[in-house]
Amino acid sequence: MIIHSNDYRNHDGYRASFNRLSKLVFGIEFESLYQKGAWDDRYICHSFVADDEIIANVSVSKMNLVINGECKRALQIGTVMTHPEHRGKGLSKQLMENVLDTYEDTCDLFFLFANRTVLEFYPKFGFSTLPEHQFHLNISDGPKANLLSLVSLDKLDVSTKEHWNLIKQKLSSRKPISKHFGVTNNEGLFQFYALNVFHECLYYSRTDDAIIVFEHEGDLMHLYDIVSDKEVYIEALVSRITTEQTRKIRFHFTPDQIIDKAYAEPFGKHEDVLFIKSLFDLGKLPAFCIPKLAHA
């Protein structure tokens, strides 16, 4: 029997079964997202149920993509999983077909990220790969951040109501981080990452009135996202959050403002592969990177 999460998101038994399966297959669970009220109606699971247990699932996340300045209705497919005891029965294939049939008339494109072990699966449904690029900026030996400049950064704690409400408020009114390839209406995905992956990397910049997601890895700084309802000047921001050790910045999104200063190179073999099934002509796209915190 196929059921949708709208039928069981608030059903304790099915939700617990879904979390058991996602933890078994991916090592993740969604209960904290649900308890925080962030499992919204834009994240919809399509699942097979047997003996009151979720045995296979394909989820969709509704959002808008901004591609070359145009807003497109998009559906991202994720959490594709089958219990080991039920693999080889074609359950994922049936769920994929169900999803594509259900939403084909309500969106402009489908997209998903796949690891390199399943690259032959998605072309069967009309998906094509689209190359992404990573953007780097080399940092000179000029002035770097110091303790005084870091005072304007407040570390966020997702366990506090005040900080969680700040995150929700900023997400609800955010501007897309890129007009070349940006995302809006993806609050649930950001909140999932905030709770489960990047909870130690969240800061509020009072200077920029923005939430900044970043971390340092030796002399490399990863800048994952900037959440604000206004334009944030990236070069000025970067000058405040780099340190004396920083020599390079990797942007996990398309940095429009400094696209002529950053250098782009294709994703490496360890990165997930972007698949797109577009219902319109994408045309020729410049180098881009879909924001990391928009990956389902």
From TrEMBL:
Signal peptide: none annotated. Pfam families: Acetyltransf_9. This is GNAT family N-acetyltransferase. The keyword Zinc does not apply. It comes from the Bacteria. Transmembrane segments: none annotated. Keywords: Acyltransferase, Transferase. Residues 6-146 form the N-acetyltransferase domain.
